[in-house]
Structure formats: C-alpha cells, structure tokens
Amino acid sequence: MSTFLSELLLRGLLLVALASVAALLLAAAAARARASLWQTTTVLLACLPLLMVALPAWRVGVPVHRVGIGLAGWEPRTGVDGAAAGCPSADAACAAGAQPAGRERKGGAPWAVLWTVGALALAARTAGGVLTLRSLARGAAEVQAGGWVSILDDARRDAGIGRRVRLLVAAGETAVLTWGVRRPAILLPASASAWSAERMRAVILHELQHVRRRDALYDVAAQVALVIHWPNPLAWYAVGRLRSERERACDSGVVAAGISPLSYAGHLVDLARTMNRGASHGLAVIGAGAGFEGRVVTLMRQRPPAVGGRSIAWIAAAAAALLGTGSAVVRPELSFAAPARFVTDVGGSDASYLSRHYGIPVELSRTISRAADAEGVDRVLAHALVHAQSGFHREAAGPGVGLTRITPATAARHAPGVTPARLREDETNLKVGFRYLAALIRHYDGEVDAALAAYHLGPGVVGASRGPAKAASGAER
Q: What is the pTM of this model?
C-alpha cells in the first residue's frame, strides 16, 4: 500500500506542476480559461487512484549505463535481491524476487497509517461542514415572492439558467453561500434586507454564475482530492487556484451582465467587511478569501483580458485532461543495453585464473565454478555476481544469506527443500543463487545486464523490459 501511496503522491505532484506551467501560458487569457484548467486538474486529482488502477500502463524506458562486467566495481550489496512489484504474475522467476518480508511493512506501515489518519481527519472536517450547512438551511426562510424574487428571475434569465433556483435568508449573519446542482440554492444573511437593489442584483448575479458553471460538483471533487492528496502541498495549491480563478470568472460574468466594475468592487469590499467567511464549508463564497485582493484590483483597473472565450476554456480543460491522463499511465522504467563484451573482459573462465583475478582462494573459485556449471550459468558471470553481492565474504553486511546474499524467501521458491541452515553452506547457497540468476536471465530473454541489475536492485526497479530491441526502443505498451 505504501508503494502505491508514494507513487500517487509523486503523480499528483507532477500533475499539478504541469497544470501550473499551463496556467502560466494562460496568464493573458480570460479567467474562465484558467478556471477550466484548474477544474479539470482537481477532478483528475480526485480520480487519479482510479486512473492508475484502471488505465493500461505506458511503460517508458529510461536508459542507463550498462552494467556488464563493470559489476565487479559495484559496492557490496545493500539492497534486496528482488521486488515482485511490477512483475508479470505469470513469471515465477520475476515473482520469486520478492524482498524480505517485513522490509516493506516496517517502512510502509507508519506512512500508510499516517495517511489514513490525515484522510479521516479531513473527511470528518468536510462532514462537519456539510452538517453545519444543513443546519443553516433548516433555519433559513425561503423567499417565494416580492422584489427579491423578481431580481432573481431577471438575473437567472440574464445568466441563461432555466432551472429553478431557491433563494434562502438565514436567521442570522453568515456568508453568502451557494450549493446544489439539481436543486441549487443561494443563502443570504439576515442583513441582506438592508441591501440596495443594485447590490442584491450584483450578489445574485455572482452566485448564479456559480450555479451556471456547476461549481458545486467541483467543490465535491476538490474535497475528495484533498482527502486523498492531503500530504501533497501542490494539491492544496491547486484547490486554492481553482477557488480563486472561479471567483474571478464569476466576477467577469457579473460585469458582462452590465454591473459597473467600480461599483461591483465597492460592493465586494463592503460585503467582506460585514460578513463572516464561509471558506470552511468548501463552498462558493462571494466575500473575502479566494484571492479577494487580486479580484478587487482587477476590477479597479478595469482591464479586460487580452484573449478569452469559451474556446480557450475548452482548450485549457482538454490540455489538463491530457496532462492528467499522461501522469496516470506513464510508468518510468530502467532499460539496460546488452553487454558487448563479457567473458573476454577478465581474460578467461579458468578457476585458477579467476581466483588470481579476484584475489580469492582457488578452492573457492572452483566451488563457484562447479555451482555455476550445475545451474548453467557462465563462470565469469557467476564470479562477478558473488563479488558484487558479498565481495566473496559469507557474512557480508546487508539482507540475504551467504555468498550470493539470496534471501530465504527467494530461496524457498527456487529450492523448496532447502532449509535456512543448508542455505548458509557455500555450495548450496551458490547453486540456489545461480539458479535464481538463470531464471532472471530467461525472464529478460538473455539480457544479462538487466538480469544482473534485477538480482541486485529488484525486478520491480528494472521493470518488464525484455530483450535488446525493447530496451533500445525506450518505450513499450
């Protein structure tokens, strides 16, 4: 679970970073274009776990320098001899590389618990906001006739909204709030009775822009995104940008309906002074917050954007959807080129020569050679593996056992009858380790460098790249 959460966090960071770059390119566009960009980004953040599971992976190879006999220069092994994550389940060789039980759990369990606690806390906070909103709605009175209803009907026609919108007046002071998609409602504070007709029209026009844009749906997506991605600071940034840009887009709609920008800015400032903020509900709020100062400055300057329109908004939303889908399906993997020279790099495969080359007793070299011959592994490759894994020291530091540092879990899969005590014997340890290496070589279609890297780092790191042709292509579906 912790691996999935870590990947989810990284992909969320990537998605918001790409959206931020796109937002910079839209700096001169209308606010509705940037709002559409951040709306789509927020929805993708909320759906990212499902996209990661449901969509097919596009595996992109990341080329690295080949390992080759240069493996002899590796540091003594500190990793694990395999990780089943990302391996085809049908391939026993790949699955056999599971890392030692407890390693993932020890490091991953606290992170998973922390994420769960944070997610539950945010969900509880959201639920509390919903309950508070319901309480406000129950105590409010619906306006069904009079001048306010006439203003609402006229503004609804100006905004192009055909469905009925309820107008509620709270029993006390509250922020102006809007919620609902099928049965939208606008909640006004009790002090609204003292507003002028122009202010009432400006406020209702602003709130109807939220209804027309169906911002209530994006409020839900924003809350879900924050619950899932709460450790990700860029997720909070994305939701903040969504709320800021949608308020600007609604302000533009009010001005387009004929309200003077300077007069409207004055109404906003007065409302911010007299009303409580309702941001804790996660709803559309006309008052302070959500980039309030920037909104007022924009209105005071009365500078319309250089470019804008519905087409730009659709392009921005489509771009965000492409970026989000790409961040969900791309699976970076290491790819390794096939070694050009291997056996000849050390001058020969004779046990006496290899013992001199590595500075080890000739009897140990013969034992390694016998085990390699028994498992069908090249002698030079076998010596290079033992040197890289343990430095020819049976009690080398790090996970695993013996000269090949193979874990008991992996050994049990490749040699079910071998006990932990026998696994510490040189000949048995070498045979089991070389048997695992031979299985990896078959798994990678003879690509020795990939097999060596998978033994040392884990098949989950190397990925499912098979064969020199695929490694060279850099990508596979």
A: 0.58
